[in-house]
Design a protein that fits this description.
Elements lengths: L1 H4 L15 H7 L1 H17 L3 H31 L2 H26 L3 H23 L5 H24 L6 H31 L1 H14 L7
Helix pairs in contact: 4-5, 4-7, 4-8, 4-9, 5-7, 6-7, 6-9, 8-9
């Protein structure tokens, strides 16, 4: 981005970006302060049922967008023709959203099912990180499958958030959906501006695993 912008703003040419890296971030006090603040906010959010739903849906949207951005950018890097196959890849993700939400809606969204869904989402994000780290073999078929699985689990977690404590759907659907969209917006900004440029694609998928793990809402129905 700096190389491109320097064509219009020459002063940016000699400017350099800090090479953070995973080790640099782990050693930075600011990283741990930010994590502690995020955990404190999550603990406070659990006190109210409405905020618990919003946090769960928002983190699902954020984690899903992190994985989606990493997979799409990796596919573009490998094939060089993302625009040609973008419709198919996005269809796979959107189909997963529909199937995941429908599956949870029919099952009823129990506490055990919610825990299994969160665990499966963490496992998929970690698998995506490992897959990206090994060179992403399999081409468009593997990418579409991972996007379908990611969409399935995002839809399932958002449906679980809406069904938390057997909520009345007419009353909670708007704030839950809004939280999901807001989380996706934040996830796209984090992926594009911070995580992918400075930490890389595998680390971005790993961050998604951490994000969705923080969204787990335990307890009995």
């Amino acid at each position: 981005m700096l190389l491109w912008l320097s064509r219009f703003f020459p002063r940016l040419g000699p400017a350099g970006l800090p090479d953070w890296g995973a080790r640099g971030l782990a050693r930075s006090p600011g990283t741990w302060v930010a994590l502690a603040g995020a955990l404190a906010l999550l603990v406070l959010a659990r006190r109210r049922l409405a905020t618990r739903r919003a946090v769960m849906a928002g983190l699902a949207g954020c984690a899903g967008m992190l994985v989606e951005c990493a997979l799409l950018l990796e596919y573009e890097t490998r094939s060089g023709v993302l625009y040609r196959d973008l419709g198919l890849l996005m269809t796979a993700f959107m189909a997963g959203l529909a199937v995941g939400a429908a599956a949870v809606g029919r099952a009823g969204g129990s506490a055990r099912s919610r825990g299994l869904t969160i665990g499966a989402f963490v496992a998929l994000a970690l698998a995506a990180a490992a897959w990206l780290g090994t060179g992403s073999p399999g081409g468009i078929a593997a990418t579409a499958l991972l996007l379908f699985g990611c969409g399935f689990l995002v839809g399932a977690v958002v449906a679980h958030a809406a069904l938390l404590r057997r909520a009345e759907q007419v009353r909670v659907v708007s704030p839950v959906y809004a939280a999901d969209l807001l989380g996706g917006c934040v996830g796209s900004l984090l992926a594009a501006l911070v995580l992918i440029p400075f930490l890389g694609l595998p680390a971005t998928a790993f961050a998604a695993a951490v994000a969705i793990a923080l969204g787990w809402q335990g307890g009995k129905e």
